[in-house]
Amino acid sequence: MTVNVHVIPHTHWDREWYFTTSRSRIYLMKSVMDILDTLETDERFHYFMLDAQASLLDDYLKWRPEDENRIKKLVTAKRLIIGPWYTQTDQLVISGESIVRNLQYGIERCQQFGHVMKVGYVPDSFGQSAQMPQIYRGFGIVDTAFWRGVSDHMTNHTEFNWRGADGSEVFAVNLPFGYYYGGNIPEKDEDLQAFLSEKIGALQAKATTKNVYFPNGFDQAPIRKNLPDLLEKANELDENHYQISSLEDYIAAVKKERTSFETLQGELIHAKHMRIHKSIFSTRADLKILNNQIENYLVNVMEPILTISYSLGHDYPHDTVRDIWYLMFENAAHDSIGGCNSDTTNQDVFFRYKQAKEIAENLVDLHMRLIAIRLQTEQEITFTLFNTLPSTRSEVIEVETFITERPFILKDANGRTLQYTVKSKTDVTDYVLAQQISLNPSKEVYMPKQVWKAVLLIEAIDLPSVGYTQVSMVFNESSESAWEQTEGRVIENTYYRIAANDNGSLDITDKQTGKTFSEQMIFEDNGDDGDSYNYSPPREDLYVTSKDLSSADISVSKSGLQEELTIKLQLTVPYDLEARSQQSAATSLPITAKVALNKDEAVIRFHVDVDNHALDHRLRVLFDTGIASNVSLSDQQFGTIERPTELTQELEWWNNEHWEEKPITIEPMQSFVALRDQAYGAALLTDCVREYQITGEGYTTIAYTLFRCFGKMGKENLLYRPGRASGEKIVETPDAQLQGALSFSFGMHYSKDAVSEGHLAQLAKRYTTPVQCYERADFLNGRLIFSFRDEKEDLQSTYSLLDIETDGAILSALKKEEHGTGIVIRLFNPYLTRQTAASINSSSLQHGETANLGETPEGQILKAQHGSLHIEPLTPCQVQTYIVKKK
Asked: Which of 51, 90, 124, 412 is an active site residue?
């Protein structure tokens, strides 16, 4: 049978990998110049696909701005194919909002050049998220093409429909042999004929129509200038028809010939034919933690505070926000977020995180200050507390602030006295007072005699939703609840009683039900013979756990707001893989765990510090819940997902069929993982590493990865990944051994309510959305914080922009729309099987409509009634965007 061979010229451009972005940009100049010259001078070269990421053109034009019109002409003519991404992003570790913004900014940038390819092309991401069909649909993208994650146990075809977690479907093209399959077309006739016979025959066997997709390109590959000549020769030598084509034209040809395709569903993460590196979620834990915390900060804190500020008359800094996201997109590229790079490259990744974090935090500081200085007050020192959740909250918060020598009480805007605790303080008198600048010598300013930088616990009450409240420091009295070290090994609050055991483990009792969970928080160390792509156990391993310890140093500190256990223990572990193979453990691994119970909080808070001086190993913390389950529950982008705790069938296939990578149950999450039965559940919450595994007899234990460390970018013949090395095996990565001090935080929740996806998602949202505090004091208004002149005090001491009443929907985004005056509210339903309802309540926002993920209105007007905008129920795992505006 004669087939139409759609030859797709392209390059897959890794912006960084075993090389740095600086090096790739230099060579990008040459590559793009050659592409432009070739397309302009050879009309037979109909198309070239620039890896679907708009960032490459921005990189190029920064140094060759004179070529912008050339690029626009070729893009508008649909010959230079670009988009829809800004960078080629990961799909399993990165947050849903990061993926959405990557597409949103990428599509917008491509449209400025004249055209955007509306195909979700991801040639090299390490597995496909179950929510990608819905995300694509949210941008009007109905087609996708990708390489990794599909096996013949799912389908034998290269074309199929892919149904996502919410039921959305897209048409999918699998590149079964990779994006480089036709990248090395030979030029001699006899070689060319044999090459085409083999290659096209294999594609034809999997095709559903008389059209096959034949990619001509590779990593950083230059354009094949003589490709038209080679294809003319191919048409002479072979019965098939060869043509330079585009991905869009290929998909259109397939759909024209056939209208019915089989359907695959959910995550696509099989590694039979191609590796998906299923444990890369904890590679370079230090960088992963930065990514996860910054992603949460941007969406949960920064954008809502900027929106509050915008609603009060301040400018919304779109360009600054976009630049922050661009930094995050650079780090979201599959190699960059994977951490599977050279040390030099990962240093660049770290620096971009540092920039993004500093810009975001200072932007938040500025806008909190712009609001705080407009609040009416008669006190010398005030705190303005910002709640960015869409509901009122009361809880103990921890803030870092300055206090003076004078005793004080804290009063909120309603005149209530708030209990507080000074948990720690450091004298900074000389430094702070030396920063003074007198902007108005006529103004009498309170100058303290002594200043401390302090960590305060404050009992915040009824913080307004998506708003702020002012707390005043009133001198000469005190409402402090002292922080004191006490005897014993027990802490408790309304929900839990926690007793520390001799070995440092915990017995946790749920006071609501009387259930006790024994020996929680076991630290487990074992070897890691893997590399920057995969965890893999050594062939001769040695497990060391804190369960076997005879003693730990345990102390308790308490106030009326928080009780805290400090547990210091020391594992003795092998120094390296050689010592581990000899069963020799002589290296100290000191661990300090602080376990805190806040007043009336249902989450147990953990902070773990590790001083790592061992090599090639993995450290996890274990919580045996006693809840046996054949599935775990965790969150994914805009929803939740159940995954099997055992892969019996996949392991049988692995053994019989020699897969590229062993199927394992090390899984990604966004912010929580849980085990549950019909009556009870236990969950781990985190804003650090997003990796877990369910282990133990009966699969009752949540094993949470703190970190893993290794010394090579790539290694051959791993137990979990036999054969060739991934990446470059000669590249040493000493930084990836993560030597020295490491810190981790997470929470645990045990409850009969933890059987509910909505309950867990709300807890995780709250855990990753801390209350923000801005301290206003004239004695600080100098070089220390950049001095401001006084503003008119025209704002009330408490304010709420809006609240959302819901039976389970989760706020994903709250921001000003990109091109308009409205406010974007994005909600998703975390439930797997039921709908959620919601209404948006606000005295100032009275008009609203639905929009797609790109913020294009969809025409469905929200019904307004008595100050509320009622939204249609959200189906399971559905995400929906709304744009609301003032009266």
From this structure: 124
